[in-house]
Each structure stands twice: as C-alpha cells, then as structure tokens.
UniProtKB/TrEMBL annotation:
This is DNA repair protein RecN. It holds the Pfam family SMC_N. CDD domains: ABC_RecN. GO terms for molecular function: ATP binding. NCBIfam families: recN. Belongs to the RecN family. It comes from Methylacidiphilum caldifontis. Residues 4-514 form the RecF/RecN/SMC N-terminal domain.
Length: 557
C-alpha cells in the first residue's frame, strides 16, 4: 500500500504531504480545485511522461515521492525486478520511490536513494498502481494480464505450470537437435565410407613403397647388365669379325712368321695361345652368366603401375602411405561415432514427437479448462455490471488459437465489452467513455479481487453520468474492493464520499500573486459539512441527509 505521498513544486502545488489510509480513500473538492493534479503527480511514479510545463517554479526542481509497504506476490515481483537490475538497496517490503523533474526538463528516478532507469520505474509502477480513469494505461487492458487473471480466477496455476514445463522440455529437445544435422551427418558418413572403401581397395602394406623401389632398382639394373653381356658376347664370338675369329687369323699369320723366324714366331704363338685360352674362358663365363640372368617385363610393368598408383593416392590424400594407413583407423572411429550420432538423432526425434504430443495434450487440456473458467468469470462480471448501470450490456472473453504454442499455452484471449444492445463487442481499451471504462474496470476488479496482485487502485471519474441507486452500488463495490486493495477515489457524488474509510478534501487557495493546492483530511463535523455541500449546499436538510449517508455507509462497513 501507499503510506505517504509527498509533492513539491509541481503544477499548482508548492508542497504537499499526504498520509494515505488503508482501504477506501475518497478525495472531494470543488470543481477545478486540483483533485486530478494529485493523481497526475502520483502517475509520475508509474513512469508516465513528464513535461517541463508541469513545474510550478521553472527555476526549481519538482519532485514526487511515495513511501510504500508491500506484501505477497506484489512484493515478490518488485523485489525480483530490482534484483534483476542489480538494485541491492531494496531488501525489505518498505521502500521509497522518488522522481525529480529538473529545470532542464530531464528527470531522475530513485528507489531508496538508488538511481534507477525510467524503464525500471515503469515496470515497478505497473505492479503497484492501476489508474482507472480517462486515457490511462490500465493493467486489465493488457491481454497477457487478462490471461493471467483468468488462470488465477480458475485456480489453473498448476495446469499452466505443466504447460510451461512441457513447452520448455520440447524447446530443450529442439535446441539439442539443432546441434545435429541428419543431412550433414549422412553426407559425412557417406564421404567417410567412400574414403574407407578407397583405402581398403588399395590394400596398403606398411613399408611397401621401399620394397617396390628396391625391386624396381634391381629390375632396372638387370636390364643394363643384360645389355652389357649381350654386347660382350657379340664382341667375343658373335660379331663378324669377332675377337675369337680374329685370333684364328692371327694364329695362321704367326705360324707363317714362325717358319721365317722361329725365335719370334715361337714366342708370339705362345702368347697368342695364352690369350686365346683366356678369351675362350671369358666367353664361356659370359655365356654361363647370360644363361642365368632372369628378366620379367610383366613384373617390371606391374611394379611401375603400383608405384604410380601409390604416388597418386599420396597426392589425393596429401599424406604419406603410413599416414593413410593411420587415417584408415581414424575413419573407422569416425564412422562409428557418426553411427552413434545417427542413433541419437533418431532417439531425439522420438523424444521430440513424444514431447510435442504431451505439449499439445497439456495445452488442449488447459484451453478447455480456461474456456470453462471464462464462462463462470463472464457470468460473475455481467452480474456486477448490471448493478453498475449496465443492465443491457454484454461482456465476453474471446478465444483464438495461436499459430504456435507458447509457455502460456495455445490461447490468445481478450476481454470484450459492449455497453448497449446492438453495439459490437470491443476490446476494453476501445471503450469510448472514460466513465464507462472505469465502471467496467471496477466490475472486473471486484470479481477478480482475490487474484489481482496490484495493491493500489485509483478511480478517477468513475461517477461520471451515474447517480441514485447505481452510485450507491458503485460505492458499495468500492468498499468491498477496499478489503483487498488500497483505493484512491476522486468523486463528486456524496453517496460515494460517505463510503470512504478516510475522506480528504482538496482546496485551492488564491491571492493576487499565486494559486496553490492543499489537501486536508476531514473528519466528524468537517466531513459532514463537505458531504452536505456535495448534496447541493450546506443547510439543515442536506446535513441530515449527509448524516444518514454516513450512517448507512458505516453500517455497511
């Protein structure tokens, strides 16, 4: 609740301090006395836009400060908002909100002396105060708030929690699946299998390259040796003339020389015969060696092809043969991991389908229960609306199915109202008359009093265009509502003024130089005279009527 409101240098107020009472606080005063100014100042604490023109003295800072004490869900929300923004100064349900408007036009906001952004002030204000008057933002205009209140009215919190849990579980699975792509995984697996097949088909053996090189070197050397031996054979015995055939001619010539000079011929023939024996032995050696040389052209070609194949494989993988053999084991491990991931994706798909089915089931169940609750809520609100002068009005709660289920379910709901027969049902925010809007809000707040967490309700112009029995019914509902909420109500109706737990009169004082607004709590005789004034003027008859109104209100309280 609001304990105290302090205002300085705003509009027509020099300085004002208001100690607000629990329950129903009524504000009365002459037309133009400045009652709405006080409400406008209060709205500054909810984050409403400020204007430099709102300063009374343009050279001084204006301020509005409210002392609050909260409990229950409202305090939990405000405390959580402050914690999320790192505001540590708010550690108990008693706190002070302050807003300053400086001569430059800028504003500053504080909670317990700690500077806070305007956005936080707005969030806190939305949880503290509902101003039900012309052109005001009201929490019940928000479809999200409407849905929350509907759920609270029906006691559906556990069902909402089940939908939220089902939604979060489903989203968690979807997010987990995002880290896997079955298409990419299958493509990767296909590529790995292709590489593995290619490596397996190569039949690689460790050290094979060195063995092939050795065999090729020997094979290539064999060809050279064979060519050399062939030429030796030709020189020794196969050419015409060959060395051996030439020795035969040489022998004949030496024999002729021996006949002429036996000494020379004998010595030359001896040397020729020795050379012939050696050359014959050399020829036999060459022939024998040649017969033992083995050359396989097909094997040589195979070795060359294998070597080229291995070279191409190394270029393709950009690895050595030993590294490709190691890669094979790595690929086998990766294929095994890919198969595990594939099974995991299949399992996640099954879990996702089950989670989706569960979410749809829970959301459908919640939707059914909401529609049932909406019927009860609609009936209760229509009864209250009739007592507030809307005898032929219509109230309804529309349901639309969302394209996608959210943590709050699949329902997009909105409160609709039509004040007169033949007029279409419209959203609450489209109600043209501010007086009608305030009374509809009163009806809603009355029915939802037990589940609405906003502690402070401000009614401005709720008495527009009503009187008699309806005015008394409005007053009775305000008193009923004040059992669960602190209410500030500006009124021109004596029956409503009589119903307040505390009565404050707004006064305007003027002199030649200035005008100022004052606020005064009135009791006993002063209150009686104020209600009599509201009845048409202070006289004996109006005072008696004022007494009866106060007595009736006291009995009802």
């Amino acid at each position: 609740m609001l304990l105290k409101l302090r205002i300085e240098n705003l509009a027509l107020i020099d300085e004002l301090e208001w100690s607000v009472a629990p329950g129903l606080n009524v504000l009365t005063g002459e037309t133009g006395a400045g009652k709405s100014i006080i409400i406008d100042c209060l709205k500054l604490l909810t984050g409403e836009k400020s204007l430099l023109s709102f300063l009374k003295n343009k050279e001084k800072t204006g301020l509005v400060e409210g002392e609050f004490q909260l409990s229950g869900e409202c305090w939990e929300r405000v405390s959580r908002l402050c914690q999320e923004r790192g505001i540590e100064e708010v550690d108990n349900p008693f706190f002070v909100l302050r807003r300053e408007i400086r001569p430059t036009g800028s504003t500053r906001q504080f909670i317990n002396g700690a500077l806070i952004p305007l956005s936080l002030l707005k969030e806190i204000g939305e949880n503290l105060i509902d101003v039900l008057g012309p052109h005001d933002h009201q929490s019940l205009f928000d479809k999200k708030i409407q849905l929350k209140l509907l759920d609270s009215f029906g006691g559906l919190e556990q069902h909402v929690l089940r939908v939220k849990n089902a939604y979060e579980n489903y989203q968690k699975l979807l997010k987990k699946k995002e880290s896997f792509s079955l298409e990419e995984l299958l493509k990767k697996k296909q590529d790995l299998n292709r590489k593995l097949f290619e490596i397996n088909a190569a039949n690689l053996v460790s050290g094979e390259e060195n063995e092939i090189d050795n065999k090729l070197n020997l094979a290539r050397a064999g060809w050279k040796l064979c060519d050399c031996i062939t030429q030796l054979r030709s020189i020794l015995s196969q050419n015409n003339p060959s060395i051996l055939s030439s020795l035969s001619t040489l022998h004949k010539l030496l024999c002729t020389a021996e006949k002429i000079d036996p000494q020379f011929g004998s010595q030359a023939i001896s040397l020729e015969q020795s050379a012939n024996r050696d050359l014959l032995e050399l020829d036999r050696l060459v022939e024998d060696y040649f017969s033992r040389i083995e050359i396989d052209p097909d094997e040589l070609e195979k070795l060359e092809q294998r070597k080229n194949f291995l070279q191409n494989l190394k270029r393709k993988f950009a690895l050595s043969i030993e590294e490709i053999i190691q890669l094979k084991n790595q690929i086998i491990d990766e294929i095994a991991q890919a198969e595990k991931e594939e099974k995991l994706i299949q399992s996640l798909n099954q879990e996702e389908n089950l989670a989706k089915e569960n979410l749809l089931k829970e959301a459908s169940l919640l939707s059914m229960m909401r529609k049932k609750t909406a019927q009860t809520l609609t009936s209760s609100i229509q009864k209250v609306l009739k007592s507030l002068g809307f005898a032929q009005s219509d109230f309804s709660i529309s349901f639309e199915k969302k394209d996608k289920i959210s943590p709050s379910g699949q329902d997009d709901i909105e409160f609709l109202f039509s004040p007169n027969p033949g007029m279409p049902l419209k959203p609450l925010k489209e109600i043209a008359s501010s007086g009608e809007a305030a009374r509809v809000m009163l009806a809603l707040k009355t029915v939802l009093a037990t589940v609405d967490p906003i502690p402070i309700l401000v009614f401005d112009e709720i008495d527009a265009n009503i009187g008699g029995e309806i005015a008394w019914n409005v007053s009775a509902l305000l008193r009923e509502l004040s059992a669960r909420h602190q209410i500030l109500c500006i009124t021109h109706l004596p029956s409503m003024a009589a119903g307040g737990n505390a009565h404050f009169k707004v006064l305007k004082e003027q002199d030649e130089k200035s005008t100022r607004v004052l606020l005064k709590e009135i009791v006993a005789e002063d209150r009686l005279r104020e209600i009599a004034r509201m009845l048409g003027g202070v006289n004996e008859e109006s005072v008696r009527l004022a007494q009866r109104l106060l007595l009736s209100a006291t009995k009802e309280n």
